Amino acid sequence: MILKNNFQKLFSQFPELLTFGEDTGIIGGVNQVMEGMQEKFGELRVFDTGIRETTIIGQGIGMALRGLRPIAEIQYLDYLLYCIQIMSDDLATLAYRTKGTQKCPLIVRTRGHRLEGIWHAGSPLGGIINLLRGIIVCVPRNMVKAAGFYNTLIKSDDPALVIECLNAYRIKENEPENYGEFTTPIGIPEIVSEGKDITVVSYGSTFNICQQAVKELNNY
Q1: Contact between 17 and 69 (Cβ < 8 Å)
Q2: Which of 39, 50, 62, 124 has its CA 20 to 30 A from that of 211?
Q3: SS3 111
Q4: Measured over all CA atoms, what is the biggest interatomic distance in the chain, rounded to whole angstroms?
């Protein structure tokens, strides 16, 4: 798995990197991206937490303020609503409240944006984007892009939220050769198909649908 291999490389490169959340430790998360990581890197760096999203983010903020590089996992995007206040009031505002004298490079990792079904498929991104101004929000369309975002963010001092699309776990991708090194630029649109008539802007789960539509239209 691309994300698993990339995280293993990052954990080997950055001893201050750690991750925690509901089911993150023993079983490696609900999608097993962290499978085997606890055995390899120890219970102090990969561990489980209680079912309390606000506490998970609070722990991450405290660790990041003390020089660690935590990845706090919220099991599903829907559950971000339970910790949106501390992210909005504390994490998003820290840099400008302290005039840049404090930094909190916490990465919040979650999954969702499937846009199908009724459970764990919601996408409250409208509220998230408005309430979390001051936090980088990434919604990669596949796992190569997701790994690239993590590689970019680990070199940054900015707090960030990465939403892994549930549909993307089933996509077959070309395996990168430089795990832990390749990056996905933040804030720079990627043009994947040139055209002259219309501009389609998309992200996350809907991107692949748009790309398929482009292929079908090009056949007419």
Answers
A1: yes
A2: 124
A3: strand
A4: 58
Q: What is the pLDDT of residue 121?
A: 61
Residue 112 lies in a domain: yes
What range does the domain containing 148 cover? 2-187
If one compares 114 and 182, the residue with the highest pLDDT of the two is 182
Paired with 209 in beta bridges are: none
Strand-pair category, 107-112 with 69-73: parallel
| pLDDT tens track for 41-66 | 999 999 999 999 999 999 999 999 99
Q: Which two structure tokens, joined as six digits, stand for 36?
A: 């085997």
pTM, entire model: 0.93
* In a domain? residue 207: no
Q: Which of 70, 74, 98 is nearest to 159 (CA)?
A: 70
Query: Which one of 23, 120, 134, 208 is the catalytic residue?
Result: 120
Q: Enumerate the β-bridge partners of residue 72.
A: 20, 108
List for the chain the helix, strand, coil content (%; round to 5). 40, 15, 50
Q: Which two tokens stand for residue 80?
A: 């971000």
Residue 203 lies in a domain: no
Q: Verify whether residue 120 is a known catalytic residue.
A: yes
